[in-house]
Design a protein that fits this description.
2 domains, about 15% strand, elongated, 7 strands, 7-stranded antiparallel sheet, about 350 residues
Length: about 350
């Protein structure tokens, strides 16, 4: 059994690597060809800018195409084994589809962990650089937060602060607006300051203008001390784009109600979504193995491949719709993130049950 498990895992891993990197290199190459002038302008025509851009785009591209690469690699392996009549030999040896799924469990865990690390570590590190360059889709995000010269949000109790820029440690702020809210969340006071410096856990504001809720005259102050314990959204996550955050950043934004940037449920949805990466590959494996048994009996290798690809794309469409509904607050965060995966697992279970009993 160990020999069969190793053979299947090796075949699947090799095809997965070739499919994933082949698609990713092709997509990034098209991107580079499209934006060659902008990329070369980053370093005054130096060709090394192309290589740097390629490296920065790699994590996000790999993450995008990893699930479909798992599906294609699985279908390629099963089609090849069926074509060479090796699948009947495996079934004849008394190995059930469930046992094959168990054999491929290490591969599923490995790819799930790799997918998680890409999104949780590599993408958050590359995103600020790509936003700074502002090439392609990142051109629209260039003015969003992500560096020392860009907006930062903080929270202290019910108070929300926005600063147009800060230093790397977020101890010196420029062009500050503090929104002070009452118990019901309504704005009761707005403090505008030109400069702020953190000194012994208190903020010293300069050139201050205070507006009040009840149409009272605004107050002008040269200096003002603000004692709220402000918690900054860390550099690199300041834009509030949850797809480019680590799970730690997502938890931090959830704890601080999104710093007023987006509703809390948006970050909760992406927090749950990040965890689904560990089981998506396993659901793909559980779907494809019963398909190989069912359609092998009719000799329909091509049908198996078509049905597998169709179900896979249907999963990705439903996953995108569910994620959007979760971001809009139409469904609960956990349901938006987990329902597509659980649905795929249910389909795999139904196919497996029918295969075993027909």
């Amino acid at each position: 059994m160990k020999i069969i498990a190793w053979m299947l895992t090796r075949m699947l891993l090799v095809r997965f690597i070739f499919v994933l990197f082949g698609i990713s290199i092709f997509v990034i190459t098209l991107d580079i060809v499209t934006y060659t002038k902008e990329i070369l302008a980053l370093r005054n025509g130096d060709v090394s800018a192309v290589f740097s851009y390629f490296l920065m785009r790699t994590p996000d591209t790999l993450s995008t195409f990893l699930p479909i690469s798992v599906l294609i690699a699985l279908l390629l392996v099963l089609s090849e084994l069926s074509y060479r009549n090796e699948m009947p030999a495996i079934w004849s040896a008394g190995i059930s589809p469930f046992r094959i799924v168990i054999m491929l469990l290490p591969f599923a865990i490995m790819t799930g962990g790799f997918h998680f690390l890409l999104n949780d570590q590599a993408v958050p590190r590359a995103a600020p650089v790509l936003r700074e360059w502002g090439i392609g889709d990142y051109g629209e995000k260039k003015l969003k937060a992500g560096g020392e010269r860009e907006p930062i949000w903080m929270r202290a109790g019910r108070d929300i602060l926005r600063a147009s820029s800060s230093n790397a440690q977020a101890t010196e702020l420029e062009d500050i607006i503090i929104f002070r809210r009452d118990e019901t969340g309504l704005l009761r006071e707005q403090i505008v300051a030109k400069h702020a410096v953190l000194n012994h856990d208190r903020w010293q504001l300069s050139n201050v203008l205070v507006y009040y809720r009840d149409n009272l005259p605004p107050s002008r102050l040269d200096q003002m001390i603000y004692s709220g314990s402000l918690r900054p959204a860390a550099a690199g996550a300041r834009s509030g784009d949850p797809e480019e955050m680590s799970i730690g950043d997502l938890s931090y934004f959830i704890e601080n109600s999104g710093f007023g940037i987006r509703p809390t449920w948006v970050y909760q949805t992406w927090w749950h979504k990040r965890l689904t990466f560990f089981v998506t590959a396993l659901a793909m494996v559980a779907l494809c193995i019963p398909l190989a048994v069912r359609f092998h009996r009719g000799g329909g290798i091509g049908i198996m491949f078509a049905v597998g690809i169709g179900l896979g794309f249907l999963f990705f469409i439903v996953d995108g719709i569910a994620l959007t509904m979760g971001e809009l607050g139409f469904v609960t965060p956990w349901f938006a993130a987990w329902s597509p995966v659980l649905g795929l697992a249910a389909v795999a279970g139904i196919i497996s049950f029918r295969t075993e009993h027909i």
